[in-house]
Amino acid sequence: MNNWLLTPALLAASGGMVSLRGVDIAIVTIYFVMVLGIGFYLKKYTTSGEDFFLAGREMTAWVAGLSFVSANLGALELLGWAGNAYQYGILAAHWYWVGAIPAMLFLGIVMMPFYYISKTHSVPGYLQLRFGRPTSALSAVTFAVMTILMSGVNMYAMAVVMQVVVGWDFNFSIWVSSLTVGVYVALGGLFSAIFNEVLQFFLIWFGALLIPVLGLVEAGGWSGVVARIHQNFPDQEFTHMWRPMENFADNPMGVHWVAIVFGLGAVLSMGYWTTDFLVVQRVIAAKNIRSAKMAPVIGAFFKMAVPFIVIFPGLLGRAVLPFHLVAQSAATAGQHSYDEVLPLMLARYCGPGLLGLGITALIAGFMSGMAGNVSAFATVWTYDLYRPFIKKDASDAHYVSMGRWCTIIGLVISIGAAYIVTRFGSLMDYVQALFSFFIAPLFGTVLLGMLWKRMTGAGAFWGLLAGTVSSIAMFTMVELDPSKVTLFAFYPQAKPLAQDMWRALWSWIICVAVTVVVTALTKPRTDAELTGLVYGATELPSEGEFPIVKRPIFWAGLCFAVFLILQWIFW
Amino acid sequence: MESQPKGDRSGGGGRKVAAAVVDPGHREHHIIPVWFFIGVQLLIYGVLIFASGLLEFSHPPDTVLANLHAPVWWGALLIVIGGIYVYLFRPGRK
Questions:
Q1: Which CATH number fits the domain that encloses residue A428?
Q2: Which tens digit of pLDDT belongs to each residue from A319-357?
Q3: Interatomic CA distance for residues A525 and A440, integer angstroms
Q4: Which of B14, B53, B74 lies at the smallest CB-CB distance from A531?
């Protein structure tokens, strides 16, 4: 997804794209002081397992909602998608709209009641309640490994970006960021992680919002942006979202609308937003079921606005930059790559002070990405692996202590992973791909588990395994022989993003098919055993006593209507 | 100390769950709201950015649209929003 990560040679670069003044350094330093201060402040409130791993289950809908969307709004995301927007045009906004909004609303309205009512501590925890230990263990192991690797990748990415953008030393960035994250998460657990994610949300918006605002002024509004792009890049389509997707060859991504709607919208994004514990954990921490349902809906409204600070700057780059950006692999001395578009736009409009705020937003994004990963890792390791398989009957204090220690250990492993990536840049590609292997099939397992009473534990386990193995097989097949991509993506020039969507769709279908067949051959559990876990065996609390404007379903409907209007505007 | 989080279940045994969505034994912390910390940070940043914006009148930066003096009004906006958050969510306010 992100070319920053594929180029360890960048580490040899000297100096940075921008130079920070005293006021910028002060702004960055204050951020570090603030997050550490919050960690120390929250330590005294983090005394039980519920505090450390679930933030006391007392987050309001707003805090849980902003944290939910912020956990996904890392700096890697900002830089990578701004670069993708420059490369592919407004098509990239699909990952924020059809690739997020329906899934977030689905989580809030349909799935959240089961996560919340079952009182589970995690997604693997839900799988254990619903299907038993084998499925839960499979999910927990893969999640723990991938999460900690992703944390290392985040660390590596931050160090590279900071070196390229501001000229900071690679080792300095790695150690300062990981020590800071380690201290505040180990002290305050999920409390700290959520507080800092909400803080980061504000910093990212205030740090990045000036770019589109000033860009619109410079280009003369949206019509001016479109006119300039057409003038700079005649005969290329960068400003429509759906129109160029009737044929594979009509858009720069080589993708068909079927893959966007079904692969991205119906499977990949559903899998990520509804079963990736990194984001779901934030909502499980809500103080009651109505807050838990409202949190993803609130998050969806803000997610819908994110393209304004991420995708739009990429498009602005096409409109106003006096030079053209190129793919990282094709960049020569003096040229900039697609992924540098956001820092370039930042440097274009922001002088001292504002520049520091923008850089702080990037650092905050990276650090909260690491914190999110290690806090989710600590929970899954402690409750889904350590407790059931290693030490069953320890005290709550013991598990809190384990959570603190594995936060530190997880970060140390992440640092190791970050240094491994510096030697083997392509490892980053594989780590991201590995992560995606589990998401789409897991969505099939969890969705069927919540909606289909008949489904059995054996069906869940073999379906999840078959979906995961098929996804890995498709990826490996293309790695060995790129021409095989047509077997599942139907187009020889399908870009990796397009391949991801098709692979997700197929692995989900395989997971569901195997699950259905194995379930038909095995004995189901009784309704009494499934109370609180499945539709049809669970009495969902009524919201009838609330006025319509206080019901999550009302706001979800409104959000979906806005989402449809946006599709129509940028069709 | 209990051995597992409140409401957590290690097995799949059935029970009446719908009424138990609010844990009656739940203890609530009285933590300073996160909005207060955000307010403090925005307020400090607002002051710094506003001040650097004022300096730009005598030392204009080499940026596009520097004539709009974005740091001045952006810093002022941060001060206002940060100030409101600090006031509304200050510790001890009922």
A1: 1.20.1730.10
A2: 999 888 887 667 777 778 888 888 889 888 988 899 999
A3: 25
A4: B14
